[in-house]
Amino acid sequence: MAISPPMLQRGDTIGLVTLGSPLDASIINARVQYLRDLGFNIVYGRHVYSYEGITAAPAQQRAEDVMNMFRNPSVKVILSTRGGTGVQTILPYLDFEVIRANPKIISGYSDITVLLNSLYQSSNIITFHSLMLIDFRVETPAYNFNQFFAATSTLTSPRTIQNPPNMPPVSLVPGNVTGPIVGGNLTSLVNTLGTPYELNTQGKILFLEETHSPSNMIFRYLTQLMMSGKFKDCLGIIMGECTNCLVSYGKTYNDLINDLLVPLGKPLMINLATGHGFYKAAIPIGATVNLNTTDNRLTVLEPTVSRK
Predict the structure, then answer these.
(1) Of 34, 105, 199, 265, whose CA is between 20 and 30 Å from 255?
(2) Mean pLDDT across the chain
(3) Same-domain status, 29 and 123
(4) Range of the domain at 219
């Protein structure tokens, strides 16, 4: 069983880091003010505002910001400003034993996916495919905040992950499987293949989502995961949205799911509200879940935070 980090409470301190691409200072400041209005304290990583092109700062410096947050006993949550690209370059500079000894809530999606899964695999801590700093604003739907705080601030168990109204998940292959859930952004996970941080799906429930990729690129990515054994190894599959994904060669995202994944015969659910979509469910990476595609239900079976 994975280690659950201490729960978040009002008045706690959030450690802010920029782990991938840079974000404009005005956006950072506005979102920080929103968090302060919610009653949280903020501490900044040294390179939160850095801007060095594709990434905010060199990999070793971004990694050190993360490690400083894990070492800081006052920090309860580590929140990345955004995803973007380049997060995987920090992985060789992380001390996974220090992280394991100091579990904290760490949340994000997009390219943060590679960090979330690596921390689970190498430090055995539950991480959260959920909100980043950019999401803390008035325009964010209440559903997203409810999901985030239900996962990080309550001990509710079991907890059914429900889509927002009028957006039902759909089960394409019936079945009932239980195991740890892993996954996230498709592009980011494919980029880990052949590295020491390659996603392990053995005995796991795999969920995927994507954004701004044409269906011919999705075809490439799904095929690469298939040829790498990731679908063979997993217990079941959850496909989230593919937001702003263009149709190529007359094939849609859903066509690819039907052509490539349905024939595998694994329990398969689609249309889960995750990641880059307007609505964002909070998926606890490493937590034990039950995927029941006969009753069309995804349930987290254990508390994802602790009282510690």
Answers:
(1) 199
(2) 97
(3) yes
(4) 159-300
Chain segment 191-233, per-residue pLDDT in tens: 999 999 999 999 999 999 999 999 999 999 999 999 999 999 9
Q: How far is the C-alpha of 75 from the C-alpha of 228, rounded, in Å? A: 38
Assigned token pair, 217: 């690129």
pLDDT exceeds cutoff 90 at 17: yes
Task: Check whether 308 has a pLDDT greater than 90.
Answer: no
Count of positions (residues) in the chain: 308
Question: How far apart are the C-alpha atoms of 151 and 149, rounded to whole Å?
Answer: 5
Catalytic residue among 209, 210, 215, 241: 209
Q: Is 21 a catalytic residue?
A: no
Indicate which residue of 110, 130, 213, 215 is catalytic: 110
Report how far residue 114's alpha carbon sits from residue 135's, in angstroms, rounded to the nearest whole number: 19
52 assigned to active site:
no
Please check whether residues 174 and 257 belong to one and the same domain. yes
CA-wise closest residue to 115 among 136, 86, 135: 86
Query: What totals of helices (H) and strands (E) does the chain contain, helices first?
Result: 9, 14
Domain containing residue 249: CATH number: 3.50.30.60
Q: How far apart are CA 307 and CA 4, in angstroms?
A: 9
Question: Is 72 within a domain?
Answer: yes
Bridge partners of residue 65, in order along the sequence: none
Averaged pLDDT for residues 103-130: 98
Does residue 13 have a pLDDT over 80? Answer: yes
* 110 labelled catalytic: yes
Last residue of a domain, one of 127, 152, 177: 152
Structure tokens at 4: 């659950």
Q: What is the per-residue pLDDT across 167-176, written as a single tens digit (0 to 9) for each?
A: 999 999 999 9
pLDDT exceeds 80 at position 63: yes
